[in-house]
Amino acid sequence: xxxxxGQDTVRFTDPGSVVLTGxxxxxxxxxxxxxxxxxxxxxxxxxxxxxxxxxITINRDAGDSVSLSNSVDQNSQFTDTAGIVYDVYTMxxxxxHQVTVHLxxx
Length: 106
What we know:
Blueprint: E1 9-11, E2 17-18, E3 28-30, E4 38-41, H1 43-49, E5 55-59, E6 65-68, E7 73-79, E8 85-92, E9 98-104
Parallel strand pairs: 1-3, 2-4, 3-5, 4-6, 5-9
Antiparallel strand pairs: 7-8, 8-9
C-alpha cells in the first residue's frame, strides 16, 4: 500500500499480531479496533512509512502493545485538541532522514 499526497491512514480492523510490510507514504496508523493488537516497529519500517520530515501518528486502544525500535528516542509529550495524550519520538538514519512519531499514550 502506497499513500499519495496528503494525509494517509491505514486502519487495522482485526485485532492480533500486526506486521507492517509493504506500506509506504503512510502518515497515520490506527489500531483502535476494540481488541488487543501487538506491533513492533523498527527504524527501517518507520523510515519507509513516511517521507523525510513527516510525522507518523499511531493511535491505539488501551490493550494494544506498540513497541518502537531502540534507535527511536522519546522527546516529550503533548495533548491534542481532543484531549488525547501522545508520546513524541524521533528517529534519524545515517543519511539524515528524520521521522517523528506521535504514539498515543497507553
